Model the fold of this input.
Amino acid sequence: MELKVKKDSLTNISCDVLVVNLFEGVKTPAGGTGAVDKTLDNLISSYVIEKEKFKGKLNGIYVLPTYGKIPADKVLIVGLGKSEEFNLNKIREVSAKVIKKIKSLKAKKVCSILHGAGTAGLDAFDCAQMIAEGAIIGDYEFKKYKSKKEDDENNKNEIELLEIVELDESKIDSIEKGLEKGKIIGDSLNFARNLINEPPCEITPEKLAEVAMSLEGIECTVFEKDEIEKIGMGSFLAVAKGSSKPPRFIHMIYKPNGEVKKKIALVGKGITFDSGGLDLKPASSMRQMKGDMSGSAITLAVMKALVLLKPAIEVHGIIAACENMPGCEAYKPGDILKAKNGKTIEVDNTDAEGRLTLADALCYATELKIDEVIDIATLTGACAIALGQVAAGIMGNNQELIDKLINSADKSGEKFWQLPLYDEHKDDIKSDIADMKNAGSRYAGASTAGIFLKEFVGETKWAHIDIAGTAILDKEYKELSKGASASGMRALINYILSI
Done:
């Protein structure tokens, strides 16, 4: 789908569908919607609003034929909800809902009002960015493995052009730049969603390494098993032992032109399939474990986006990629592992594997002399139970960093909820024969995992984001469809751009 802006009047534009909007409770439209209403002989106000009782509630949609009164074939009126509750995140959500509806109409060319830049008074750049993000996210479908016949049928629903129509010349440049930024973020999100939605037979540790190596503008080093062993990643390698697929340790670097304002590391969990190991998961719990590499997909997508967004921040993307399988070489409950920083770990449960791979990855990251490290992982079922599919858990050793990430999530239409890391949680991972265990009791599982990870970051500023509940959605949520969400990616990008 191509995104463009055109200087023109909404009533003059030729397209298959023209999108206008309405706040809840408005009886007589103003602005661009009002101009279209007037040209349509008040069909919106006298028929759609008065007779059809269209209220303008958020995401409500009404499609109206134009009967040749304007060049557009149809007008789509979308509700923006209550004006006092309206914000930029609502624009993204509305844009996605509109695109999904228009695809069902088999329209090719769509023109739209700039939602939010009229009576709401929001910045044109920001509004354009949200429209672009929403449109690209809403347009997403993972249909790679559909049969050719069905795929051909689906292609009939592809929107070719979304054009923002704006009469004010002074806003055109801002709209163009906003559309460009929104497209980069939307495309990157869908890039991550594609990786997560792929079957585990396709996305192996080797494949993740290939994807990382293919990213333009990114320095990338990939360590294979022998090299991983030499640099002392005993915790990570133990998890990989039960699989026939060899592990890969991936280190990507984005370097800006000119002065570097900050140096950070993003560590993404890269378990490309998690069977639970010898502590085998129930079959029903294993069904979505192809998504246990969501953190790595998000890390790859962020790196991809940074090359185009060009922040003045040096960013290291780090992934310890492997499968957790119960093969004949698999690590066992009771094993003692040695992490890269020399700390020893008693294996309490082989299904608490993500923290073992992250432990070595975090050690590696802190040795890079970075300013701060952020890890993102589908880490604990406990976090999913606590927060559901609405919010990811966040914790760490630096409150300022946590607060900034929560704020970035809010601006991104995502939610992070802070969970505690109390010293008392250390009691749950005490071991009689090693420095710590990799799992504790059934209580406070998300915080127990966090307190384990804290042992591997030293004094470096650190935040941990647990996306176990939000990574794969059971049903449509706001702008996102069922399936992979790449939750947290937008928050990370916005945080980096805010520095």
In short: The chain has a mean pLDDT of 96. The radius of gyration is 25 Å. The chain has two domains: 2-169, 193-498. The chain has 16 helices and 19 strands.
